[in-house]
Amino acid sequence: MATIWQKIEVILKEELRAYDANGRNRGGLGSFNYGLPNEWRYEGQVAELISSKSSRDVLYSKNADLLLKLYSSLGSTGERGSFKEFLYKQLIIDSPYVKITYIIVFVLYRIDELVPGVSFAKRLIGDSVNAFDNVCGMLALIIKYEYSFLSEKDYNDIEYLLGNIKEYDFWIRDRLNNAKYKILEISLSDINPEINTDRNKIINLWEVKFGKSVVPNLIKEIEELFREGDFNEVKYAICVDRVRALLIDVLKKIAVEHSKEKKDDKIVDSAKDREVLNYLKEIGFLNENEGRLADSIYKLTSEEGAHKTITLKEYARITKNIAYEFILLVLDKFSKK
After folding, report:
1. What gap in Å lies between CA 291 and CA 302, rounded to an integer?
2. Which residues pair with 61 in a beta bridge?
3. DSSP state of 163
4. Which residues contact 237 (CB under 8 A, 6 or more apart)?
5. CATH number of the domain that residue 291 is part of
6. At what angle are helices 114-121 and 101-110 packed, to 10 degrees?
7. String of b and e for 163-179 (b: at least 16 CB within 10 Å)?
8. Fewest CB within a 10 Å sphere: which of 107, 154, 165, 254?
């Protein structure tokens, strides 16, 4: 049976064939659907160094995908360590696979080893087969298309590792700063002074009426999820799900308090979501329009959060902001009764 290293070599040899057919002299990176990045622009224009949307659906290589599938098939820590060890051993000038360092760095990146990979690759500086340049070309593509999947520490470490090296191009330093700028811009895009003021009012009203319990913690979780640098769509789906939980927790607490006051024993802490919504409409706490709005918010957060893996940022922002305003309305009404 072939060893892990032998299986990796089968794939790397195929990548060598792809590189020789579509190599650097043609601006290509072997089996990858994107070649070395060039940012042409007219005089007076600013280059778009990163894409408008960060996604792992853009860069693709059949051979890289096969290597990643091989890695994921390995069951033990030792086997995965052996896989990584072989890849690191190719980041030297004497490796038969030195020309295709770009695919090695890409695979290391996808298994959370990008910074060590770049560190190892620095030994190739000054090579005569464009190995280090190919590493930098792939690094530029990763930053361009997948910038949100790198942490702030990754950016700082890469900047430190590259230092003042002159042998690479592809505007990597500019891309790194551009990516950090984009992440900062997106993290602040939801900053709405009015919404944030109302969010704080919700926390204050809740703590005055019910003390420091689950609702302030849920709001904190929602805000952290929404502003984290890794702003992928799965995180937004979780955020919307937390908004749904926030809405129901507030309405359920109000319904339980009303039920206790009326001594009708209709609503307890274990009541189902739909029972809570129907009860608040039945007793008149929510008027007809408010009841419809509560139903709509609940339906939207259920369909775009709890029951869906991926939710777009627009849905996350809309549901969060509408829910905050509605929750403030009902809490204010409850506090004045």
Report:
1. 16
2. 32
3. T
4. 304, 305, 308, 309, 310, 311, 316
5. 1.20.120
6. 150
7. eeeeebebbbeebbebb
8. 165
Range of the domain at 69: 4-38+47-186
Q: How far apart are CA 70 and CA 87, in angstroms?
A: 13
- Indicate if 327 and 249 belong to the same structural domain: yes
- pLDDT tens digits, residue range 85-127? 999 999 999 999 999 999 999 999 999 999 999 999 999 988 8
> Count of domains in the chain?
2
- 299 and 203 share a domain? yes
Residues 97 and 200 in one domain: no
What stretches of the chain show up as alpha helix (H) in DSSP?
4-21, 62-73, 77-89, 101-110, 114-121, 131-146, 152-162, 172-188, 193-210, 214-227, 233-262, 273-282, 288-301, 313-335
Same domain, 273 and 320: yes
d(CA 268, CA 10): 63
Residues 26 and 162 in one domain: yes
Three-class DSSP category at 189: coil
Tokens of 130: 């464009």
